[in-house]
Request: fold
Amino acid sequence: MQKSEILPSASPLTKGEVLLLEQIRSKTREHNLNNVTRTKAYLEFYLHHPEIQWAFLGHMVSRNGGWNMTDLKGEFLTRLMAKKDRNLFFHFLERGNWLIFQDVYPQFLLYEESIRQRKPLFHLFTFLNISTFMETIWNQFWRIQDTYLHTIAMVINEQSYLEKRMVQNPYYQKEVLNKFEFMLQDWLSFNHILFPYGNKKLAGQTLHQFESLHERILLGKKLYSILFKNMEIHQHALEWANSHPHTGSRKDYWPHIFNSVNEGMPGFPYQLRLKSCQLKSGARKIYSPSLENAWKNVSQEEAEKGDWFKDWRVVDYLTDDDEMIDGEIKNDYCKTLERLELATLAKKAIIF
Reply:
């Protein structure tokens, strides 16, 4: 590693700080192998530090990222999308998932080290290319543990971090977002964020304007409300997450409908199996593979440098509007599954 990568000339570091930063980079790389390792790392951190609520929110949203990835190798999309398009979309999802983890997890590790040393170490954020916005937020959280403000600030940071690197990236604009806009908005379960809890229950929200930073931040606030303001959902979602390790298969939350093993025979025409989110009598389950069996690990290029934070007006999002969201999403999700099933039956391939 180049010395200049660790030591910006303006701020010399102690040997201990240099070692700490390298340990943080190493541990982040270790857990940033794939969606399953990232998702597990978020939950493990939350269980040790429940005051960092974004860790649980991030865990649950990251589960959805994994389900979206395996859908591309599952029952429906292998019939509806060309292999090239499915590969393209996977790499888009994987890049976003990877980028967020390599930005967030070092923040968590520095917070953990700050607790050990009993002093804030957030001045080291700049050496990890973390926004000055988050340095301010973490220093405030160190003094006053406002969990709501801290979590929403992290939502703002992560969505703003992705904005130029992913959403406004000319390559992704052309090859993914413009190409798949119809699918993202109206077709697939990619725009559903599902929070399983209790016995086969689902809460969540649906995003209709993925390309809008404003809408993605508002979605994050709504998801926070569902997961942390409703104590019944929070308790049961946490219990569910603890007792159901993330595999990437939708079998994790609905084993009565999905199976990570393909029960079908290749070459046979598709037959309708679902009615009101239940399998018809004698029908085989819908194939939803584990991430391990769907995709190989991807070696990512280094994250693009630069601080997104330019405009103080983003602090307006930090206001708690006290909105309670019931999170009802099962009906919408069931309709999406039925729509996918009908398209598959008709072999109505989605052409771009």
Summary: The two ends are 43 Å apart (CA to CA). The chain has a mean pLDDT of 91. The longest helix spans residues 83-117.
